[in-house]
Amino acid sequence: MPPNLRLTDDDRNTSLASTTALDRARALLDQGRKADAVGLCLKSLGGESLPVITAANLVLILREAGARDEADVTEADLTAQLRARAARSPDDARPQIDLGRLLYGLDRFDEAGLVLAAALPRDPLNLRAVMTLTAIYLKQSRPDDAVALWQPVFAVDPDSGKLRLDLARILAYGGFPDHAKALLDLAEPLCRDNRHEFEFVADAIRGTSQASSQAAMTVELFDRFAAFYDKNLENLGNRGPETVGLVLDRLALPKGRKLAILDAGCGTGLCADLLRPYAKTLHGVDLSPGMLAQSKKKKLYNHLTRSDLASIGTLPPGPFDMIVSSDVLVYFGDLAPVLTNFAAITKPGGWLILTLELTEHPRGWTLTPSGRHKHDPAYLKFALQSAGFSAPKIRIDCDLRLEFASPVRGFAVAAQRLALAFAAR
């Protein structure tokens, strides 16, 4: 049993060390190195305070690796901690909500549902609890009960199309398209300020193709969120920049500030600190003026320009030694235009690092109810080679973020610009 096992009630306190250990433990398990995976899990559980979902995932890995005794003892300790907290503060819904979320993370869905259902009347606007209980009800094929959970949330902001659109996404993601379409009908007249976002989500749910351009949706979405984008990604447990950092570590490039680097889709500059030690010049581009304004405040870039990654005429000419694109290409389905543009401004031998969300799909990508795309690694390999890059030389699999209270599986790759480009066959 790990000593000093402690839980924190804030998922945003997840450290790079603990989340990296979680991904490494999964990778070791995938490689059949069960003993190493168990050791890493126990070390993490015996260290710093952990968010409840991280701790639950470590327990699941222990069990999958065959360390059932350690998993059982750790699980019992975790649940005992939270039950004790709930007993000490019977009028405070938060410890009970944390217990419900822990049980959910441990795949004890029925128990989690009972705990959360008892806690929510005391805190009906707690979105973590609402989201988690929604996910449980959808697993239990109770979509009407899931929709009912959101009525107090809707009542606070009756004119919010965004809230109804979010629930439509969740219902579609959970496998209830008819309920999702009903929420779309309620959201549509209210989505006046996020019309392009609505069209993308509606296309994914209704199976239509009415959306306006990806560029228009991107500007609309990110200009609206720019001022609090960093905080939103914290709440979602965003791992994109950290995963880029892991790829950079694997590349082992010298940190001599000698490279010309393009941060393609720089957003608010979340990757800038990671790239600065390698960069002689660091150029950030983004389509959203609001995001560029946030990046400018951080004073980490040599240049910032507004660019559409799919339009070569808007991109800086380079040539660049490295292009990094974190959590950006999820807004494109067909990657060929963007990758071809990247190849045109990358030096032969230069590196391309990017993150994508994971799927297996015969077309190579699929549009999800979130309005984001998932990509197939085999398709990415083909698209890279067609554009003039190598096949991925490094690949790191990880959970990139949370979506609808569940981890989003993704991957990061590093590929190299070939001196001579050959069409993939």
Order of helices and strands: EHHEHHHHHHHHHHHHHEHEHEEHEEEHEE
User: Fraction of residues in helices?
Assistant: 40-55%
CATH topology call of the largest domain: Rossmann fold
Oligomeric state of the chains present here: single chain
User: CATH superfamily name of the largest domain?
Assistant: Vaccinia Virus protein VP39
Total number of distinct structural domains:
3
> Helix- and strand-based class?
alpha/beta
Q: Could you explain how this protein is built, in words?
A:
There is one protein chain. With 425 residues, the chain is an alpha/beta fold. The protein has three domains: 7-140, Serine Threonine Protein Phosphatase 5, Tetratricopeptide repeat; 157-212, no CATH class; 232-416, 3-Layer(aba) Sandwich (Rossmann fold). It contains 19 helices and eleven strands. The chain has a seven-stranded mixed β-sheet. A two-stranded parallel ribbon has the order 1-2. The protein has a two-stranded antiparallel sheet with strand order 8-9. The N and C termini lie far apart (53 Å).
